[in-house]
Amino acid sequence: MDINELLNAETPDKKKRNQEDFDKPRTTEEFENWISCDNSETPIDEVEVIILDNL
Amino acid sequence: MKPETFDAYWEGTLKVILPQLKALHPNVELAPAAKDLVLSNYNAAKGVQKAINGKDHEKLFDRHKIASLITHAIIKVQPLIISVATQSKSNSTTLEIKNEIFAYNISLNILWSMFIDKLGRDAETSHLVPLMRTGKIQIPDCNHGNFKKNLITSFYHIRWPRSEDGFNFLLMAKNYFMLENYNLVYYKVEDFANKHKI
């Protein structure tokens, strides 16, 4: 694993995929769905509460 | 969010920061019914934002949006007050900052809890969770102040008068500033890795 992968940086492969995704023609509804990433996997009430003391 | 969940974040956060704030200003206290008011503001704002911005109402809001709405609710309600007997004109600014610090802390506790949960459920990232639990959240340094200082000042920028078309250029500038700092950290790490080849 190289440092780009570790840092989640945009590698040439990822850059190409991201550009293709960005350029993809979309209807208004598809566009609105694309820009609103509004899903979470777990309801907040089921998540373990962590209180940080180093903020 | 269930009241008992919110209560755990609220009380847990206050337990850490209230003694620190009281050490600086002993007369800081919580406004009566502030907790219920913050939660009801959050729930109401979430409903409105889901109606406006959430395309699929069955889906859950992600952790960034939840944390952001909690920040907004606390800044709006201003749960920390200074007892009337000791109020002065100079108190208002420092009190506003204390509420912003509270908003920052409780929002990051929510964000971090949900982030750890997400990473723990992903096979590619679950191995990071023990390290992150021990190391806790890392606050990047910036070329002036650190991330905490910059995020808290952005709470002020949010309320700054926007341009006539509603665009908040100071908040957008803050996003660009954070990108600069991500790049500074990125290239410092890359430089270090280049000099310490395994």
What would your notes on this structure say?
The complex is a heterodimer of chains A (55) and B (198). Chain A has 55 residues and is mostly helical. Helix content of chain A is 44%, strand content 0%. Chain A has 3 helices and no strands. The radius of gyration of chain A is 17 Å and the shape is flat. Chain A starts with a helix and ends in a 20-residue tail after the last helix. The model of chain A has no long low-confidence stretch (mean pLDDT 84). By secondary structure, chain B is mainly α. Helix content of chain B is 68%, strand content 3%. Chain B contains 7 helices and 2 strands; from the N terminus they run H-E-H-H-E-H-H-H-H. Chain B has a two-stranded antiparallel ribbon with strand order 1-2. In chain B, helix 1 (3-24) packs across helix 4 (91-121). The longest helix of chain B has 31 residues, at 91-121. The N and C termini of chain B lie far apart (47 Å). Classes of the chains: A mainly alpha (55), B mainly alpha (198). Chain A binds chain B through residues 3, 7, 9, 29, 32-33, 36-45, 47-55, and chain B through 1-2, 5, 8-9, 12-13, 15-17, 50, 53-56, 59-63, 65-66, 104-105, 108-110, 112-114, 116-118, 121, 133, 136-137, 139, 148, 186, 189-190, 193.
Short description:
The complex is a heterodimer of chains A (55) and B (198). Chain A is 44% helix and 0% strand.
The number of distinct β-strands of chain A equals: 0
Backbone CA Rg of chain A: 17 Å
Task: Find the structural class of chain B using helix and strand composition.
Answer: mainly alpha
Total helix count of chain B? Answer: 7
Termini distance of chain A?
31 Å
Shape assignment of chain A: flat
Specify the helix fraction band of chain B. Answer: 55-70%
Count the E strands of chain B. Answer: 2
Main pleated sheet of chain B: 2 strands, antiparallel
Biggest sheet of chain A, in brief? none
